[in-house]
Description:
It is a multi-pass membrane protein. The protein has helices spanning 17-37, 45-53, 60-94, 106-121, 126-148, 154-178, 180-186, 199-217, 220-226, 230-235, 240-262, 268-280, 284-309, 317-333, 336-340. By secondary structure, it is mainly alpha-helical. α3 (60-94) packs parallel to α8.
Amino acid sequence: MAPAQRIPAPHRIAVRPGAGWAGALAALAIVALASVCAGATFVSPGTVLDALLHYDPARLDELAVRTLRLPRTLVGLAAGAGLGLAGAILQSSVRNPLADPGILGINAGAALAIVLGLTTMGSLTGSSTAWLALAGAAIAAAVVHLLAHRSRGPVTLLLAGTALTAILTSATSAVLLTDGGTFAQFRFWQVGSLTGRPVSVLLFGAALLVPALGCGLLLGRALNVQALGEDLAISLGQRSAPAKLLSSAVVVVLSGVATAIAGPIGFLGLLVPHLARLITGPDQRWVLRYSVVLGPLLLLLADLLGRFAAGPAELPAGVVTAVFGTPVLIVLARRKKLSAA
Length: 341
């Protein structure tokens, strides 16, 4: 049996995991508040509180908070948590530091399914959008694993995912370019954005996302055992096939729902687990907890940067994550240990 491929452990930051996680939660709360307050006009935290507790639609600032900025922030929290945790589970389960739902075609499969559904049916409800995204993500995940199943090396999986992503993205673009109505509705969603999302999609997606997040956080021990190698995992009483199947199912749900909510945002699932391991080391129980917090933190920061980087226009959050994620991918791909795996 082939030896397990292990993700190279980065140098760890000297911080207690519990204290660091509490600090990350505090930072997320501050960034979430800034996301609600910041915009073309600044809204004070007091006004935000009034909009939540004593909503007056006659006040334009409270109307903006309730109908635009709060939904935008909630989309960032949900999609960021889903993609961050999905990336952490995926990298650990396939033992590949370059694994990411965007790079392996999972997000692209969800996006294509939604676009095909919209073109076929004309309009989608919140539930149909989420179910289509899940179906597309599941099919893409199955295809990329079938393409790479003959080799356990990280390069084969990466190449298969990259090829599948290119094919699915091209198909999505072809559909959008031949259907003006679909293109007009989804041109910002296609690059990943937190704005203009129907509340029905967010609510239904959250109903699927919350249980998946809870289930994913419980996988830490199983992933730790799996990292020791299949033989040792079996000797410790863990069956690898069910554990891998459950991990794949959780990744599909997290990635599919996040894509349905915010569009195909790339590189977030790649960056977050590496940042988490810098703080926690290889213990997946802490890596997963950090990923749930760091994912929305980075996505909301990207969205805030996009609001002011190209003013008065805005850059979608997916564009910002791609700008910062691409150099990280190049650095990781050039690491000696990965090349020798």
